[in-house]
User: What shape does this take?
Amino acid sequence: MDRPVTPMMQRYLEVKAQNPGTLLLFRMGDFYELFYEDAEVAARVLGLTLTSRDKGSPNPVAMAGFPYHALDGYLQKLIRAGHRAAICEQVEDPKQAKGLVKREVTRVVTPGTLTEDSLLDPKVSNYLACVAPGRDECGVAWLELSSGRFFTADVPAGQVADEIARIHPAECVVCEEHRQHPVVQTLRQMSGLLLTERAPWCFSADACRRLLLEQFHTQTLAGFDIEGQTAGITAAGALLEYVRETQKSSLAHIVRLEPYRRGTSLLIDEATRRSLELTRTLRGETRDGSLLAVIDETVTPMGARLLAEWLSNPLTDRQSIERRLAAVQELVDDAIFCRDIREQLKQAYDLQRLTARVATGRASPRDLSFLARTLALLPKLKARLVGRSANLLEMLERRLDLCAELRGEIETALVDEPPLLTTDGGMIREGYHPQLDEWRDLARGGKEWIARYQAQEIQRTGIGNLKVGFNRVFGYYLETTSAQADRVPPEYIRKQTLKNQERFITPELKEYEEKVLRAEGQSIQLEQELFGALRERVGSQAARLRENAEVLAELDVLAGLATLAVSARYCRPEIADEPILEIREGRHPVLDRLKPSGEFVPNDVQLGEPHGRVMIITGPNMAGKSTYIRQAALISILAQIGSFVPAASARVGIADRVFARVGASDELGKGQSTFMVEMTETARILNAATARSVVILDEIGRGTSTYDGISLAWSVTEYLHDVVGSRTMFATHYHELTQLTSSLKEASNWNVAVREHSGEVVFLHKIVPGSADKSYGIHVARLAGVPPVVLERAQVILDRLENDHLDEQGKTKIPPRKTQRKRELQLSLFAEDHPILDELRKMNLEGLSPNEALQELHRLRDKLGAGAPG
Assistant: This one.
């Protein structure tokens, strides 16, 4: 027979039912306990010992737990393993509880809603996103809860995955009704993204708008430059509703919703971000080894996160780019100024995340002291910025708010080194509050009184070893040895007999003890109340603090870019409106920093008028073609974030998009082969690139047969030249493509210089004009250790294949193209127009009956020779 459920377990089951899909951490005394399936998961993920409750019953309950003070460490493991956790705390003092201690979930912790420093990477933004498919576009909203930055955008459905890849959220909220929506299906396949489904009512357009207006205390969203009932507003409201439910606390630090205008940023799709390793490496998905890691010279967590944001969102507005470059230039030119700024910033704490913790009521006394110390740096910083010539630096100086009264209030209230926890007491400064000082004096005086009382009783009784002790069971007591017990006065009340000691109390001792303990408890409670009120007042100024945090972050990024420019010998790029890319002695920003100084071979790039729009780069594998074209794209991106670039000089025309088709891997989980991935990415480039885009292609067509590959690569190059007109760099081992320059007037041949000596081949890694005369593929195979007999046979086959598709003059037998018009022939990229297409165009479809239309279809099919179905 099953035992009845205890009141405590009944409460556990109630709370668990209210929080489905989470691991419930149920506070019981000094431990957090998990039960049933949650305990089994926790034991596996956290390495806890799995025990059981009610072992004697037929159905014992699985149980696992850990000490309350170890919560952060175990939470981190659970979140990293992709779990959500509901924290159920004891919300009343067990000493004052009548019956079962009241327990409530104080917050739900998910990958996208972390706020604790111990659970977050200080250099990485931890975004929570929401996607709400609309009628024409999808709403996308994203929030960094630990800093309060909140964005929204309306995005075409086909570009949502690119935006989510750019944002790189830890968690994404979607409507459970949209499970089968193509956008949600695509998101489900993105690695490392946790999808959280919510009920349809959470996505009610009217309710979402009302929630936003309530959060920002406004009657309209027009003040945020957001108008109309868009899908982006719905996404933002649904996201806010989710955060409110999980946090169960104030969100006062979320003070505005920022519209994200996609037209003001350089568009970079998911495949290109991955190929160029902008913020994470291809292997390992780590920050180390990425472009972001090697250019990051920031000294604050705020600056590191902002630099990542700049790199993910390069600018397309020339004026904005020039403003950043001018600020970096001034910092480069004035080394002392730059050093002073960085020295001040090194002492700053993470003001963004501190502000968020204050506004949500989770800041500790130590957090408030860190905030005040950061504010104390502002006067010197502001003074150093006064009179600067760069417009951006001047604007940052104006935005910097010293918050003198706020800093003064914190410094007046808190001691210099406050404790971490409010329960420890001792955080409020002497002289701040008269009542607190009085209770503290009483508490200290009581201890002195007890010392005097002990001396008095020793003298009165003549018991030399008499002493006053204390324990938690019955407070203060007088203690003497058993041998001296007969000398104890009759007014002493025996409290405890031990082996060799006797313990007594007196009415006088207990009366004063009660005063002392009451004073200590009252002083700690008053301190907590005073601190809570101070934290609330500071939190009410969250908007001012956040503005300062943004200024400090931007200063840090600009000073970091200046430091990088000096230490790595970067030059200031010239920004142009026309589509041009002229780089003299350019270097790959990552390899240049990772290789020993002077080892990387610099190269020039010449794209745009008067050099032509297409560079065809041939040369052996391992010679540096891929590195060369990648570095050109990376230099363009660096220039458009407002950074100096690794080159002797650079003239960069602003690009609207950068595309990189470099390398490929099977995506078997999506049912896509290497070649399918390659062609999908190529199709995207051909359909989306414009004359202002930068396109880098590496070995198009290598995922299929040689002749298929050459055909596709040839036709793709023609299309990019004739129809798209983008700045294009095409690295290839198909030497046949070098003959395209005879028919494409804006194309030029380049190759990787090679030196041959005594049968040995040396790759010089230098890109020079002209085409390569050999592929050296067999030579590379020799370096890799392929047996000589295989190499000899390969040479014979190669000679035969090369001769087969060349005419007597050594030229390709591929027929010349027909002149293509811009974009008009996009649908017929790989096929010539057919006479039947002309018939279809001339056909009066509206005048045909269904039977006549069917007859026409049969006639056209017969004309094509398709035959009847078998």
